[in-house]
Design a protein that fits this description.
Elements (H helix, E strand, L loop, with lengths): L1 E10 L2 E11 L4 E6 L5 H8 L7 E6 L2 E2 L5 H7 L1 E4 L11 H7 L7 H14 L1 H5 L10 H13 L5 E5 L7 H16 L3 E5 L3 H7 L2 E6 L2 E7 H5 L2 H8 L1
């Protein structure tokens, strides 16, 4: 579904990612782990076309994404749930969700998906009229994921979904991620909590200083001594 071939990314003169190659198959959860500043978020930004590669190719369902506008990427079936949630604080929960479906014109389908979002996240139904900025951190993360789902993505990019959450809430978010995958959503996951990410994902890539230094089956990689010492404690 997604393939990066020798992708190099930079912010001005600062090199962030060097010749990274990875792929995500339909139906998988693939995780990127690594220290802060390793380039994980930068890769997600490039996939969703918020950052242009200096070299290399990014292919989504066989289509080269170079030159494709970010809103067109969403229409192709790719949704990005960013780090820090970035909900619209002064809009209601319902408004946030409906804005997630901005590329769609099928009103009946949108209403149906809104109900599905509320079924998936019952707390959002309870707070449908509440301003998003007044939600707890966990509730805002649920809203951010539900909003991304409103465009019916084929591939969901999740950036640090457990960031700043209490462990019990983080586990709830990861249970939801597993549930979404079981319902057919393919997921590329960036997560600082390497333990949780490796338990949830099918495959994993390890980034160090902008380079992929290890890849493979997530559970097997979690047993690799070097990976355990560096990221799993």
């Amino acid at each position: 579904m997604l393939e990066l071939n020798a992708v190099t990314l930079a912010y001005g003169p600062v090199m962030a990612v060097r010749e990274a190659s990875l792929h995500v198959r339909q139906g998988e959860i693939v995780t990127l782990i690594g220290a802060n500043g390793a380039g994980k978020t930068t890769i997600l930004r490039a996939v969703s076309r918020l950052l242009d590669p200096k070299s290399g190719a990014i292919m989504f369902e066989g289509r080269d994404l170079r030159g494709v506008a970010p809103d067109r990427v969403v229409r192709l079936g790719l949704a990005h749930c960013p780090e820090g949630r970035q909900v619209l604080a002064r809009q209601s929960v319902r408004d946030n969700l409906e804005l997630g479906a901005y590329i769609r014109a099928d009103r009946a389908g949108i209403r149906q998906d809104l109900e599905m979002a509320f079924d998936l996240f019952p707390r959002l139904r309870e707070r449908a009229s509440q301003l998003a900025g007044t939600l707890s951190g966990g509730e805002q993360q649920m809203l951010a994921i539900a909003r991304a789902l409103m465009c019916r993505p084929k591939l969901l990019l999740l950036d640090e979904p457990s960031l700043g959450l209490a462990p019990i809430i983080a586990q709830e978010i990861f249970n939801i991620i597993t549930n979404l995958n079981q319902q057919g959503v393919t997921i590329l996951l960036v997560e600082q909590n390497a333990h949780m990410a490796m338990r949830t994902a099918h495959r994993a890539y390890v980034l160090e200083a902008g380079q992929i230094v290890a890849e493979g089956d997530a559970r097997k990689l979690a047993d690799d001594e070097r990976v355990r010492q560096a990221y799993l404690g």
